[in-house]
Amino acid sequence: TQLLEQSPQFLSIQEGENLTVYCNSSSVFSSLQWYRQEPGEGPVLLVTVVTGGEVKKLKRLTFQFGDARKDSSLHITAAQPGDTGLYLCADNNAGNMLTFGGGTRLMVKP
Amino acid sequence: GAVVSQHPSWVICKSGTSVKIECRSLDFQATTMFWYRQFPKKSLMLMATSNEGSKATYEQGVEKDKFLINHASLTLSTLTVTSAHPEDSSFYICSADGPGGDYEQYFGPGTRLTVT
Questions:
Q1: Were A4 and a residue from A84, A101, B15, B80 both cysteine, which residue would form a disulfide, CB within 3.0 to 4.6 Å?
Q2: How many CB atoms lie within 10 A of CB A90?
Q3: Mutation target vs A (from B58, B92, B105, B106; most A CBs, 10 A cutoff)
Q4: Per-residue pLDDT at B31
Q5: Positive or negative, the Cα torsion across B21, B29, B104, B61?
Q6: Cis omega (within 30 of 0) on the bond before A8?
Q7: From the CA of A64, how many Å to the nearest CA of chain B?
Q8: CB of A65 within 8 A of CB of A55?
Q9: What CA–CA distance (Å, rounded) separates B5 from B49?
Q10: Number of CB pairs < 8 Å for A and B?
Q11: pLDDT tens digits for A5-32?
Q12: Which residues from A are below 8 Å from B45, CB to CB?
């Protein structure tokens, strides 16, 4: 059974700071996805990465996929209160089955 | 496009009663829908995979007789929590296979169930 570990579990920072959260898998990812979930809402897909070493940018968010395709990081530059939420990494396996990590809960204080 | 809705958004029921949650794909057809539950401050745990016209596939540890899933059409899947108990209180989220064969699930907004 694949295990996805995310760290840190909780992060509280001030507006304007930078942060990085991590996702590590016990096995090679089929296809790594990052989601953001706000309280009382369903997750929203941020990015999908497939190729080892891949880097994708989405405005202030930078996603890196490890060369061995077993780890990933999400870096947020100049965090804003609107970035507050639960960040989830997930492996999208064959057949579009998702295995989620435990999540990193981010709070950005104004 | 690819909008998924859930109804109700929240529900309170008494122990021993049953409650039905609907998941609809509004602007696309979904052969496969997924049901997750999420406890406070926790991640999503897949409960079952629902395929239109066939029986749902349940994850290990999920009681199929307690969590009845019906996927009678390409736009609707329902989850019925039977004989609900307070420990069934949770946030239930559905998702649907994206249109066009892309490997993306589109999530509903969730249903918060509270069993008193």
A1: A101
A2: 25
A3: B105
A4: 86
A5: positive
A6: yes
A7: 19
A8: yes
A9: 17
A10: 52
A11: 999 999 999 999 999 999 999 999 989 9
A12: 100
